[in-house]
Please model this.
Amino acid sequence: MDGIVIVLKPPGLTSSNVVFDVRNIFDEKRAGHLGTLDPAAAGVLPVCLGRATKLFDILVDKDKEYVFECAFGVRTDTQDACGAVIARDDRRIEKNRLVQILPEFIGEQMQTASIYSALKVGGRRMYDIARAGEEVEPKIREICVHDLELVEQTGENRFLLRAVCSRGTYVRALCESIAQRLGTLGYVSFLLRTRSGPFTSERAYTIAELETAKTAGTLMQKLCSCEEATAFLPALVLDEDRVIPTKNGLETHVRDAADGLVRVYGAKVFLGIGEVKSARVRLTIHLY
Model:
């Protein structure tokens, strides 16, 4: 069974829990998700099945979109609602002031990930190490925020924001940085990933919905095909006499094709992903 299923992960489940459930529902051993969601977060978690797991490197680097609530005036040790309150501030944040400073966080920047993040250190999740009371060194890496806007004010010192950002961006750390810029404290009280690359929440299914579809015999309808998942890549159609050589790993000369990844077709069949270099294409991921 090949394709990508878009799971709507609930708070409380780890991403590994979701993959375990999906593997059992689809009876497919080859399964892996496209980017960890922290246990407390909810939202879009695409899971690749079968030959679609070969697409991991292509799909995992795509931008993510989040909707989240910043609660100002409180700091927790985990930067979210699951942690213990460690500091308070009675400063009142005005909506207009928040809107004014948000553009400062758009663009490339260095970010320090929370020690309660899902990043791994020595094969262990940082949040597992931190919760065990062991010392863990925070990780700093470059991220990019492409868009950041206020959706609405949800209460006193509470604001719902939307962010589009690169892989590896930690929204909890972004919220704390915004709070610091406003001269106060803050944490993420609600976090929902609404999009991961081309996969959106509109096409996401809960585990319960997938189990129901399996019982009804409609499980295959819940899958996004490998061809559809890579629709953002340009298509390249081979002459019929080059299909067999291409399947056998040989290069084919192509005209007017820019260097980079392409979807390769031959004899009206989607063959997989190829790479064009210097007007020659080679099939690198076989999906037929």
In short: The first strand starts at residue 3 and ends at 9. The chain has three domains: 3-62+199-228, 64-196, 233-286. The mean pLDDT is 94. Helices lie at 15-26, 56-59, 95-101, 126-131, 171-181, 207-216, 226-229, 243-247.
